[in-house]
């Protein structure tokens, strides 16, 4: 009795099947990495209340199209194996004030892009980091909600 593996000898065993990564998983990885990147900015992280430190991530994943044999030969082997799809992300963060907002957003953008490529095999085609709220030390220790 011959199995299906014997009927399709042109496809090696290691290249059969499909790998998919759910949108929720991509969002969870991005949130974890963004939180980790922001935690390195200790002066800013100390101003944000504990319940507000988790970034909110919205994601949309588009799976990589199947490549034909000609496309496989044109690309390097490492790139061909690593990319499973493209992700578009929007990450909303809350930061301490005063702090270097640009450096924090750049760190989030850089690290999320790198880690999604490494951990999930996703290319990030669009990543927007938005600052939803700034938390000030003065506002936290006073009764008023605004610093004037």
Description:
- This protein is an alpha+beta fold and 148 residues long.
- The chain is built from seven helices and three strands.
- It has a three-stranded mixed sheet.
- Helix 6 links the parallel strand 2 and strand 3.
- Helix 2 crosses helix 6.
- The longest helix is centred in the C-terminal third of the chain and has 20 residues.
- It is elongated.
- The chain starts with a helix and ends in a 7-residue tail after the last helix.
- About 5% of the residues have low confidence.
Radius of gyration: 21 Å
The succession of helices and strands, N to C, reads: HHHEHHEHEH
Spans where pLDDT lies below 50 across 5 or more residues:
67-73
Mean pLDDT: 77
Q: If helices are DSSP runs of H or I spanning 4 or more residues, what is the number of helices?
A: 7
- Major sheet attributes: 3 strands, mixed
Total number of β-strand segments? 3
Structure classification: alpha+beta
How do the strands of the widest beta sheet line up side by side?
A: 1-2-3
**Coarse shape:** elongated
Could you tell me how far the N terminus lies from the C terminus, measured between alpha carbons in angstroms?
82 Å
As a percent range, the share of strand residues is: 15-25%
Share of helical residues: 40-55%
Outline the secondary-structure elements:
Elements: H1 4-7, H2 23-39, H3 42-45, E1 56-63, H4 69-74, H5 77-82, E2 85-97, H6 101-120, E3 122-136, H7 137-141
Parallel strand pairs: 2-3
Antiparallel strand pairs: 1-2
Helix pairs in contact: 2-6
């Amino acid at each position: 009795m011959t199995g299906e593996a014997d009927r399709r000898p042109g496809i090696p065993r290691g290249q059969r099947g499909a790998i998919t990564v759910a949108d929720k998983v991509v969002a969870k990885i991005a949130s974890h990495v963004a939180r980790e990147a922001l935690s390195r900015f200790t002066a800013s992280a100390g101003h944000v209340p504990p319940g507000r430190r988790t970034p909110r991530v919205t994601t949309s994943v588009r799976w990589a199209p199947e490549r034909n044999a000609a496309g496989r030969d044109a690309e390097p082997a490492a790139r061909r194996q690593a990319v499973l799809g493209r992700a578009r992300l929007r990450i909303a963060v809350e930061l301490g004030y005063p702090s270097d907002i640009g450096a924090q957003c750049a760190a989030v953008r850089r690290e999320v892009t790198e880690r999604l490529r490494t951990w999930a095999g996703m290319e990030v085609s669009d990543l927007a980091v938005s600052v939803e709220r700034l938390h000030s030390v003065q506002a936290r220790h006073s009764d008023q909600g605004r610093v004037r």
